[in-house]
Design brief:
The complex is a heterotrimer of chains A (646), B (211) and C (308). Chain A is mostly helical and 646 residues long. Chain A has one domain. Helix content of chain A is 70%, strand content 4%. Chain A is built from 26 helices and 5 strands. Chain A starts with a helix and ends with a helix. In chain B, 72% of the residues lie in helices and 0% in strands. Chain B has 211 residues and is mainly alpha-helical. The longest helix of chain B has 28 residues. Chain B is built from 7 helices and no strands. The termini of chain B are far apart. Chain B has one domain. Chain C has 308 residues and is mainly α. Chain C is built from 12 helices and 1 strand. The longest helix of chain C is centred in the middle third of the chain and has 32 residues. The chains are: A mainly alpha (646), B mainly alpha (211), C mainly alpha (308). At the A-C interface, helix 15, helix 16, helix 17, helix 22 and strand 3 of A face strand 1, helix 4, helix 5, helix 6 and helix 10 of C. Strand 3 of chain A pairs parallel with strand 1 of chain C, so a sheet runs across the interface.
């Protein structure tokens, strides 16, 4: 526990030296964060492998007891919580250095947010959990508002704050209900039969709403795209990689503490996962802002994690331990994998934005030639997020698929087949989207002068991307490395005392060995290709003999995605702005298409505006005079007294 | 018995506050009320508990010295005038205060206190003080008088809390004291700003800020 | 016993040899059938072998817009195809590598091949190849679920979670699962035609930009990379064909007869493809999604029939 406390202290204070040092603040922050990460990883390893969870009692000043307990699930979540901020603070050395006026504030807040996150994964008491949750939410809001002069950033920050506070409201109510059932605020298992009552249903729905607002489950996702696009890239990687996973952590803890969840809980989580996954990736396809696109992909991956959780909970309800273990293991591994590759992708996006000065996909192109390391790292991230072997995204999706296929043998097979169909479609759509992103940004010819003059980012920015890319490859090529930790974490999530028998159910060792023949074959074939007669290079693309080939003739991002977007227009409702060409010699015409977010821009926005207009009728109650307001208070007080007494 | 005398004196100060039109006199009476309140635990016979003695000392220091000091600091540059005609005239305010005390007595009979306990007079006194404070806040136009009203309000809450001072941790009473101190401090700053902005302490000018 | 391990290793050896050497014969067979149906003699059966040997001697040309991603496309296609061929059983002998859940790896290996091909197409900066890439990814959204739903149906019937168990299961034709199985194979047949760019989805012989999907993605390759492209396409024909031929083969008493049966089955499949290509015309591009949805519905319906 000392290691854990040391870790929390180091990461939380990583920004503090930067307040006093003039130039080396970033370096100090990176060192402190790295040391804290090492301490935390050691603590996590100890919690995962060396015996049972470690207990620590903290007495808060309020006189109550706040528990911190690092069990296997918390230790598993601690790994991405520490790795991503460490990479982010190294990235910030080149990306958001002291030339920006908000660099010191950002470093301080970055460290404090990570500190709250570290406390959150170990919280075992409702008050500690809520304290750390609120702290994390508020500091994340301050991080998002780093460039708070822009109105777009302000709007995104406000929407994020409103959503996260609504989530905390739901969580407080849910914790209160749960405490009334267990008799205390500690995380103890709920009594049998509680889950089937109406109070149990209300508790579950409130937890789902509260954690869903944080995790970005459809339709509570609408704060994600704006907030992720507005924040600096290393903050976006923190938010996408870890912050939204805290919602998943909360859900896992809730599901772990319920001994007899009804079947509809697992089914609801599964359906929400399928909807989030499909709609997330569909909306991602239609974006042309690079970071908004990546944010929608986070929603999609949360959907995949929920598919795994739903399958696991269905296994728990129907009493099939194999289904439960595989579902939870797949979800947990996808949490780790997604943090790694989404963090990598956001850092890559940050490097691209830093080099070209724009987030618009239609302004990029051909960056692989001037930024080869960034391109390779981004390719690794894209390969992983599409779930393609031999990288890590495939391993976690494979575990979830396996859980679904196993579930086919049981009576809940209609949900399993929904999971299989959803996962297959999500995989194909994600591959389409990332082929578009990588192809339009890095390949082909540059579409704007900024893209043509882009340069490779400094080494401080390349290093964390390389680290994360290697981590993705390592977990993908050799999943046996994470299998023991995963088995223990899945066992803890399923409520067992020890690890689940993951090796018996899923042959991760065989999967590890598949990568070998694949890479060997690829290497041999590559060598054979190169060994042929000397190649001629430097000629223009043949392009069927088209001589006027230039950057403007290439496929754009919108045209690449157009087939799928127009196929899904009943779901996406794209807005297209163009005037038809009617004359023989028309003047200049333009075409613009966009896909506004369905919940935010079509439901919540107009709905709130209409409500506000309706409520202006009550303006007369606001006299503007202070005594009037005080009179209101007095009247309320007297009325309450009289009512209480009568 | 001593505590009953003190409580009666506190209720008298309520009436005085409501009837006066001179701001200086109102401040002095409020300070006296605060000191009386501070002495009340001693009169209740609780001097054996060391933390209560500490609290008494703190209360008398804050209400008898610190608050008047803050008032003096806030009004050093201002010329203290009389209170201009309030929303409700002085006679009417007096009648309302008396009605409020009566209401407090009525309510106190219905609240579930053990009969014959020594706290029988506390509840009506505290409710009366509360209502007096509210009355001052609502009906007076000068900002300083409103601050005095706030002070009296907090005194009322403090009085109510004294009923439970043996059982509750000192935290609550200390909290009220802190609340009071911070409130007066902030209001001192605000009054200064109001006077600078509007060249007058009349709070009706604040209504211009409404959009 | 050493006998059975010897036999097993012989089976594995034959499997590998088939996977490496057989593929170019299949397009040759298809083209021969098409030619005979059209009243021509057509190219010899071994034409693709000669083409590959010729291309291996030719010089490759790389445009200045391309990077290493351009070469990685064909390499990934062949590598993924070879590994996939190790996962799928040819006939009733189990595949050299089999484990629970290998069908998922199988499907995603083809995803790897598709992703790499699309990226190498976008690498050239040419609008034609971008167009082919866009169409390819659009249609893959419908073929992937069809493939997986077929797997789900087969898992439900055979109870095995491995390709070698699902496809090599005996007695399909006489069990109650005949109806659903036919639906699954029909759906997979449509997926087969799409993935291998056969008429009626895509014409492997045309080079008009309005009608191409796969052909247009490989316009700029030459020399050894082009040889890899052609070999990879034929490898895909073999591997996906084995997926369809497997459940249809009856189980015989002797394992070597099973192999002969497999070869015969592949020949029949090539014949059928040739006949379909000769007899039908290409769909208009906006009819292709409807065709694919029909395939998806076939496999979904098969699953629900098994559910009931």
């Amino acid at each position: 526990m000392i290691l854990f406390g040391l870790c929390a202290f180091l990461v939380a204070s990583s920004g503090v030296p930067g307040l006093f040092l003039r130039t080396r603040g970033g370096l100090a922050a990176a060192w402190l964060m790295g040391l804290g990460a090492l301490a935390g990883l050691a603590a996590a390893a100890r919690a995962l492998f060396a015996g049972g969870p470690s207990l620590a009692l903290l007495h808060t000043p309020l006189g109550t007891q706040g528990y911190l307990r690092l069990d296997a699930v918390g230790a598993f979540f601690l790994v991405p919580v520490l790795v991503l901020p460490a990479c982010g603070s190294i990235f910030a050395l080149g990306y958001w250095d002291d030339r920006h006026e908000s660099a010191r504030r950002l470093r301080l807040l970055f460290g404090i947010t990570t500190g709250f996150l570290v406390l959150l994964v170990a919280a075992a008491h409702a008050l500690t959990f809520l304290l750390a949750w609120e702290g994390m939410a508020v500091t994340a809001y301050l991080l998002v508002m780093a460039e708070d002069r822009e109105p777009v950033t302000q709007k995104a920050g406000w929407i994020y704050l409103a959503c996260t506070h609504s989530g905390t409201l739901c969580l407080s109510a849910a914790f209160a209900l749960a405490a009334s059932a267990t008799g205390g605020f500690l995380f103890t298992p709920l009594p049998m039969g509680f889950a089937a009552t109406s109070r149990g249903t209300a508790t579950f729905l409130l937890f789902l709403a509260g954690f869903g607002l944080k995790a970005g489950i459809f339709p509570l996702h609408f704060w994600l795209p704006g907030a992720h696009a507005a924040a600096p890239s290393h903050v976006s990687s923190l938010m996408s990689g870890i912050l939204i996973k805290m919602g998943i952590l909360g859900l896992i803890r809730v599901l772990c503490l319920v001994p007899d969840p009804p079947r509809w809980w697992g089914a609801l989580v599964l359906v929400l996962g399928a909807v989030s996954g499909l709609l997330g990736v569909a909306f991602a396809l239609a974006q042309h802002d690079l970071k908004r696109l990546l944010a929608y992909h986070s929603i999609e991956n949360i959907g995949i994690i929920l598919l795994g959780l739903g399958l696991g909970t269905l296994g728990k309800s129907t009493g099939h331990p194999a289904l439960q273990a595989l579902g939870y293991a797949g979800a947990l591994l996808h949490v780790l994998n997604h943090s790694l590759f989404k963090g990598l992708l956001f850092l890559g996006a940050g490097a691209v934005v830093h080099a070209t000065g724009s987030r618009d996909l239609e302004r990029m192109g051909g960056l692989a030639r001037t930024m080869p390391v960034t391109a390779a790292a981004f390719l690794a991230g894209s390969w992983a997020i599409c779930g393609l072997p031999p990288l890590n995204g495939f391993v976690s999706e494979w575990l979830i698929y396996l859980a679904a296929f196993r579930g086919l043998a049981f009576p809940s097979s209609s949900w399993s087949v929904l999971a299989i169909a959803a996962l297959a479609t999500i995989g194909a759509l994600a591959a389409a989207c990332f082929a578009k992103v990588f192809g339009v940004v890095f390949l082909g010819q540059p579409r704007s002068p900024e893209a043509a003059s882009a340069a490779e980012p400094p080494r401080a920015m390349r290093l964390p991307m390389t680290i994360l890319a290697w981590a993705c490859c390592a977990i993908g090529v050799a999943p046996v490395l994470v299998a023991p930790a995963l088995a223990r974490a899945a066992g803890a999530a399923a409520g067992l005392a020890g690890p689940v028998d993951l090796g018996g159910m899923a042959h991760l060792t065989t999967l590890s060995f598949i990568a070998l023949p694949m890479l060997t074959a690829a290497a041999l074939i590559w060598v054979w290709c190169r060994k042929g007669p000397a190649a001629r290079t430097g000629l223009p693309t043949w392009d069927c003999g088209f001589t006027a080939a230039g950057p403007r003739v290439q496929y754009t991002a919108s045209s690449f995605a157009d087939g799928l977007v127009s196929a899904q227009r009943f779901v996406l409702w794209p807005k297209v702005h163009w005037r038809r060409i009617v004359a023989l010699f028309p003047s200049q015409r333009g075409y613009r298409s966009e896909v506004p977010d369905p919940v935010l821009d079509r439901c919540a926005g107009p709905g709130l505006a209409r409500t506000a207009r309706g409520l202006t009728g009550l303006h007369f109650l606001q006299g503007g005079q202070l005594p009037l307001y005080l009179l209101y208070i007095l009247i309320t007080l007297v009325a309450l007294l009289v009512w209480m007494v009568a | 018995m001593l505590s009953d005398i003190l409580i009666a004196l506190i209720v008298l100060t309520n009436f005085t506050l409501v009837a006066t039109s001179r701001i200086n006199k109102a401040i002095q009476v409020a300070v006296i009320q605060g000191v009386l309140l501070g002495l009340l635990p001693i009169a209740m016979g609780l001097w054996r508990h060391p933390h209560i003695v500490l609290m008494v000392v703190a209360a008398i220091t804050v209400k008898g010295w610190l608050i008047p000091y803050l008032f003096r600091r806030a009004t050093r540059k201002l010329k203290i005038h009389r209170e201009v005609s309030p929303y409700i005239g002085f006679t009417a305010s007096l009648v309302l205060c008396a009605l409020g005390t009566g209401l407090g007595l009525l309510l106190a009979n219905s609240l579930p206190l053990a009969p014959g306990s020594r706290f029988a007079l506390f509840v009506p006194a505290s409710l009366s003080t509360l209502l007096t404070g509210f009355l001052l806040l609502i009906t007076r136009k000068k900002a300083l008088m409103q601050v005095v009203g706030y002070l009296v309000l907090e005194n009322g809450i403090y009085l109510f809390g004294l009923m439970l001072v043996e059982e509750m941790p000192v935290l609550v009473e200390t909290g009220i004291l802190l609340d009071l101190f911070v409130g007066i401090f902030v209001m001192g700053i605000v009054i200064n700003h109001i006077t600078v902005a509007f060249d007058s302490m009349d709070t009706r000018h604040l209504a211009e800020l409404k959009d | 016993m050493s006998d059975s391990t010897l036999v097993q290793s012989l089976h594995i050896l034959l499997h590998i040899l088939t996977a490496v050497l057989l593929p170019p014969l299949i397009p040759g067979l298809i083209n021969k059938v098409k030619a005979l149906m059209a009243g021509r003699t057509g190219p010899p059966l071994l034409q693709l072998y000669y083409d590959l040997a010729k291309l291996a001697r030719k010089q490759a040309v790389f445009s200045r817009t391309t990077t290493w991603v351009f070469l990685a496309g064909p390499v990934a296609v062949v590598a993924a195809g070879l590994v996939a061929s190790l996962l799928v059983p040819f006939g009733h002998a189990p595949a050299p590598i089999h484990f629970q859940g290998d069908m998922i790896l199988f499907a995603y290996l083809f995803g790897v091949a598709r992703f790499a091909t699309v990226l190498s197409a976008l690498d050239t900066g040419s609008s034609f190849e971008g167009m082919g890439a866009a169409r390819e990814v659009t249609f893959s959204v419908l073929t992937e679920p069809a493939l997986f739903l077929g797997f789900a149906a087969l898992v439900k019937v055979s109870g095995s979670l491995s390709l070698s168990g699902m496809l090599a299961s005996p007695g399909f034709a006489i069990s109650r699962a005949t109806g659903p199985l036919i639906l699954v194979l029909a759906g997979w047949g449509m997926v087969f035609l799409t993935e291998n760019s056969r008429i009626p989805v895509d014409d492997p012989n045309t080079h008009l930009e309005l009608t191409m999907i796969h052909e247009v993605m490989v316009l700029d390759h030459s020399g050894r990379p082009l040889a890899l492209v052609l070999y990879g396409a034929s490898l895909k024909l073999l591997v996906l064909g084995a997926l369809i031929v497997g459940p249809l083969l009856p189980r015989t008493s002797h394992p070597w007869l099973d192999w002969a049966g497999f070869y015969a089955g592949m020949a029949v499949l090539a014949l059928a493809v040739g006949l379909v290509e000769s007899a039908t015309a290409r769909f208009r591009m906006n009819r292709v999604p409807q065709f694919l949805v029909a395939g998806l519905l076939a496999t979904a319906f098969a699953f629900f029939l098994l559910q009931a």
